[in-house]
Structures are given as C-alpha cells and as structure tokens.
Design brief:
244 residues
C-alpha cells in the first residue's frame, strides 16, 4: 500500500471512530491530511457526508494553492467552511499536515468558558502544557478565507487550537498523531469539566511539573499508531466499508 492510500484509509477510519464515540455533529465538521511534501495537496471529507458513512475512496483531493472561487464551484465542491479553514491552514502552516476539527462536548464546553485554558490538573491535561493555542475572537462561522488565515496564524506551531465559543482543531504530522491528540484533548477536557463541576478549587500543577509531564508524554509517541491500528481492527470486526 502506498503512502497516499494508507493516509486515505487511516483518515476514513478516524471518521468512523469518532462517530462511534459520539463526537460527530450532524453532517458537519471536517478532517484533512496532506499528501505531498509541500503540505498543499490534501484529502478532506466530501460535503455533508455523515462520519459513519465516509469511505476512503470518496475523500476529496484538493490543493490549497487553488483559487477559492474555482474550488467552491466544482461539482464536488467541499463545504465552504471546511475549505476556508483547512485550505488556509494547509496553505500557511505546512507543518500541520493532518487537521482534525470537531465540536466534541467536553472540549467545546471548556472552549466556551471565559477562561478556556486547559489547566494541568492531571496527566491528561498536563500533556498539553505549552502546546495549546487559544482563539478568543470568534466572529461567526469560518466561511471566509480571511477567517481561515486568521486561524492559521493563531494556531502557529501548536498542536491544539481551542476555538473559543466554537470547538477544537488539532494538528499532527501523521493521522495517528492527530487522532491521539483529539482523543486525549477531549479526555482532558472531560476531566477538567468534571473537576469544575465539584465546585471545589482546582489543584493546578506547578508549571515546572506540568512541563515535565508534557515532555515525558513524548516518550510514549508509539502509542498513537498502536491505538489507531487497534481501533481499525475493532472497526473491521463490525463494518470494514470505510476501506472501500
């Protein structure tokens, strides 16, 4: 299997997995993955396709350097907000090769607080210490290239973008890396939301300790491909149509 075929397969699996976890939203939200060295050519889900039905063969192949009007006039045009956000980030942040954008419940709840910081209160939250960008200038749906470029600038070289009053976007070098980041950012925000729900003050780790945990987490990077591979194995036992 060549690299592009593998990326298609893994990205398609991510849609099915997150639908299974209940983190999808109607036929909205988008994932994309670069397929060339420049990071400009990328795959993305077709417009208004439910996550639980996405197949590898139907992922759109797009180029972030193309004119927006021409792309959006295609018979198989992507969703306008998907193009504006993902196209702009792939055009301006080539190191962000895989982008997953969702509105999962706990992360969206934390992103909607006056203080959307993922405070380091445990291992899951601490792993993101220093790696989260916060956007607090929500101006409506991301349906303009100007808004996409603004988000790209806010994201920069961070792996998580907490989109205030909106949701979350994670960036990774591989599908597995981005998948694992999304899995853990929602877990981290769940833990944080539950801690807030007790009404008691948070026990926030000192910066030095949080940084130590975040650094140590990188020693377990091999978990990401193993986790995705085994999730795909579980998918195959029930419905392998994402491979089509």
């Amino acid at each position: 299997m060549d690299d592009v075929a593998r990326i298609r397969l893994e990205l398609a699996a991510c849609f099915r997995i997150f639908a299974e976890l209940g983190w999808h939203e109607s036929v909205a939200n988008h994932f994309s993955a670069a397929i060339d060295d420049s990071g400009h050519r990328f795959l993305m889900n077709p417009r208004w396709r439910h996550f639980s039905l996405v197949r590898a063969s139907e992922l759109l192949e797009l180029d972030a350097r193309d004119d927006a009007e021409e792309v959006l006039a295609r018979p198989d045009a992507p969703d306008v907000s998907a193009w504006c956000i993902h196209g702009a980030i792939h055009a301006n942040v080539p190191t962000a090769r895989v982008l997953l954008h969702l509105h999962p419940p706990y992360t969206t709840a934390i992103a909607s607080l006056e203080d959307p910081t993922i405070h380091p209160i445990d291992q899951n939250t601490a792993q993101f210490f220093g790696e989260v960008a916060y956007d607090r200038e929500f101006g409506g749906l991301g349906d303009s290239m100007a808004e996409g470029r603004r988000l790209a600038e806010v994201l920069g070289d961070r792996r998580v973008l907490m989109m205030g009053n909106h949701g979350v976007l994670v960036a990774g070098q591989t599908v597995a890396e981005a998948f694992e980041s999304m899995y853990y950012v929602e877990t981290a925000c769940r833990n944080l939301a539950l801690a807030y729900g007790t009404g008691q003050p948070l026990s926030i780790l000192p910066d030095e300790l949080a940084a130590k945990v975040a650094k140590a987490t990188k020693n377990f990077a091999g978990m990401a491909p193993a986790h995705l591979e085994q999730r795909m194995e579980l998918l195959d036992r029930v419905d392998s149509s994402y491979r089509d």
